[in-house]
Each structure stands twice: as structure tokens, then as C-alpha cells.
């Protein structure tokens, strides 16, 4: 009994069938749906480079946004810091006392009297 | 007498908190500072010092005072609840200690320790005014 590959014409038929099948497999492609199309090597390199450059740009934009956001948050934090000097704060609310025994005297928060007066009397006290 | 010196333009008068009697004093000082944000510092000071309103040492009492003074209640209560002037009060306390204050009331006249009696204090004020005027 002779084996198929022992006959030349059957061997040729098998080889042809194998070539056809491998060609068909290559035409269908072996990558996933998201993989860039496999056309030829130079196109593949260009596509990969473009993909990488787009990714780098996205990263840079994200970093810029983060930096801007951090900078604006810092600015808000700086603005909301209390002024440490009580003398500076003393000018926040000022005017003229409109009632009571100090009526008509100019005041600036906890200071009363003419700002140009030559003498400053300070009283330290406790309300109780 | 101090008021006379202020009215005559000889002196200006500054009140600073020196808290030695604890939480109630601290609260009263805070409430006064919060009122000061809305221009009612002296109304509150008088309420605490002259009228001796014991009720005002509580949050409810301070809010009543704020209503009497027609303040913005939301702003006032937020100031109290967030202890917004804690830093200012702390600085005054530190300054008092730096100025050598150990009890109340303590007066300073142009930065110098004030006399104990009012009469002596007024003499000191007049002398300080003469010195300042002479130096101009």
C-alpha cells in the first residue's frame, strides 16, 4: 500500500491546499479589532509613531491642566489667609460713632479718636 | 477723663483684649471683634463693659445684641462659629505679654506704662502731648 505523499501528484495537491489555507489566514489578519491595520511595515511604523505622539500630547495637556489647577488653588488659598497684623485689620471698619457717650467721635474698629492725635492711650482689659 | 482727652484731640484711645478670666471673656472678645467687622465694635464693648449684660456672654445673648445693633446675623454667627478672630485675639494676648501686662486694666501712654490713678494718667497724657508737640 502506498502513502499519499509517496505519490507525486497527491503531494502537489496537498502542498497547494496548504498554501491556499495559509494565504487565506494572512488575508483575514491575526490582530484584534483595535489593532492598527497591518498593511506594510512603513505604514505600521508611521501609525505607531502618530499614536505615540498623540498620547504624549494628551499627557502634556493633562499635566498643564493639573499645574494650572494647582496654581489657581494656591492663589485662592493665599487670598483666604487671615491678615496677621491687628493694626492692619483695625482699618477694616471705620467711621463715626453714631450713638452713646462717644457720639460723633471717629473710630477705626477698636480705636477711637483723631488718628492724628499726638498721644495714644492703650488700655488692656478683660470684659468680665 | 480719657474721653475728654480724646474729644479734645489730645489723644486717641485703643482698647485691646487681655483675656484672663477664661472662656466667657474669650467669647465676649470674639463677639466684639465679629461685631467690629460690621462697624459695631464699640456698641458691643459698651454692652459688655458698661451695661454688664451677663446674658451676652452666651451665643444666644450675643446674637440678641447683634439683632439690637441691626447687624447681618448670618455673617455675625458665622464669624462666631468659625472663631474667625482667634488669630487676632492670640496676637493681642502675645502683645500684652510683650508689653509687660500682667493684670487688668493696664494702660500705656505712647508705649510707656501708664500711671495707676486716672489723675496721674491724665497728667502723663498731657506731658506726652507736650513732648510730641515740641518734637514736631
Fold topology:
The complex is a heterodimer of chains A (128) and B (136).
Chain A: H1 8-28, H2 41-79, H3 86-89, E1 94-96, E2 106-108, E3 111-112, E4 119-125
Antiparallel strand pairs in A: 1-2, 2-3
Chain B: H1 2-7, E1 11-17, H2 23-36, H3 41-49, H4 59-68, H5 73-81, H6 86-98, E2 106-109, E3 112-113, H7 118-134
Antiparallel strand pairs in B: 2-3
Describe this structure in words.
- The complex is a heterodimer of chains A (128) and B (136).
- Helix content of chain A is 50%, strand content 12%.
- Chain A is mainly alpha-helical and 128 residues long.
- Chain A has a three-stranded antiparallel beta sheet, with no helix packed on it.
- In chain A, a hairpin with a 2-residue loop joins strand 2 (106-108) and strand 3.
- Chain A is rod-shaped, with a radius of gyration of 44 Å.
- Chain B is mainly alpha-helical and 136 residues long.
- Chain B is built from seven helices and three strands, in the order αβαααααββα.
- Chain B has a two-stranded antiparallel ribbon.
- In chain B, strand 2 (106-109) and strand 3 (112-113) form a beta hairpin.
- Chain B is elongated, with a radius of gyration of 17 Å.
- Chain B starts with a helix and ends with a helix.
- The model of chain B has no long low-confidence stretch (mean pLDDT 92).
- Classes of the chains: A mainly alpha (128), B mainly alpha (136).
- Chains A and B meet through strand 3 and strand 4 of A and helix 1, strand 1, helix 2, helix 3 and helix 6 of B.
- Strand 4 (119-125) of chain A pairs antiparallel with strand 2 of chain B.
For the structure shown, list the relevant keywords:
heterodimer, A: 128 residues, mainly alpha, three-stranded antiparallel beta sheet, 12% strand, rod-shaped, B: 136 residues, two-stranded antiparallel sheet, 3 strands, 57% helix, 10% strand, elongated
Amino acid at each position: 500500500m502506498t502513502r499519499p505523499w509517496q505519490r507525486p501528484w497527491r503531494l502537489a495537491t496537498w502542498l497547494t491546499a496548504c498554501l491556499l489555507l495559509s494565504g487565506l489566514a494572512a488575508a483575514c489578519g491575526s490582530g484584534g479589532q483595535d489593532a492598527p491595520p497591518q498593511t506594510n511595515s512603513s505604514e505600521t511604523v508611521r501609525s505607531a509613531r502618530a499614536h505615540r505622539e498623540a498620547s504624549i500630547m494628551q499627557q502634556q495637556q493633562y499635566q498643564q491642566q493639573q499645574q494650572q489647577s494647582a496654581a489657581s488653588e494656591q492663589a485662592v488659598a493665599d487670598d483666604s489667609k487671615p491678615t496677621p497684623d491687628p493694626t492692619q485689620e483695625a482699618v477694616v471698619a471705620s467711621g463715626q460713632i453714631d450713638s452713646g457717650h462717644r457720639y460723633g467721635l471717629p473710630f477705626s474698629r477698636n480705636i477711637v479718636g483723631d488718628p492724628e492725635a499726638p498721644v495714644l492711650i492703650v488700655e488692656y482689659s478683660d470684659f468680665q | 477723663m480719657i474721653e475728654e482727652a480724646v474729644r479734645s484731640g489730645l489723644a486717641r484711645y485703643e482698647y485691646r483684649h487681655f483675656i484672663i478670666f477664661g472662656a466667657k471673656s474669650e467669647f465676649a472678645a470674639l463677639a466684639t471683634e465679629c461685631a467690629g467687622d460690621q462697624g459695631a465694635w464699640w456698641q458691643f464693648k459698651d454692652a459688655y463693659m458698661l451695661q454688664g449684660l451677663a446674658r451676652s456672654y452666651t451665643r444666644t445673648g450675643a446674637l440678641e445684641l447683634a439683632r439690637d445693633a441691626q447687624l447681618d446675623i448670618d455673617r455675625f454667627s458665622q464669624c462666631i462659629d468659625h472663631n474667625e478672630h482667634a488669630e487676632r485675639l492670640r496676637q493681642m494676648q502675645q502683645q500684652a505679654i510683650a508689653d509687660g501686662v500682667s493684670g487688668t486694666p493696664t494702660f500705656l501712654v505712647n508705649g510707656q506704662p501708664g500711671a495707676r490713678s486716672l489723675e496721674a494718667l491724665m497728667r502723663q497724657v498731657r506731658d506726652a502731648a507736650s513732648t510730641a508737640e515740641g518734637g514736631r
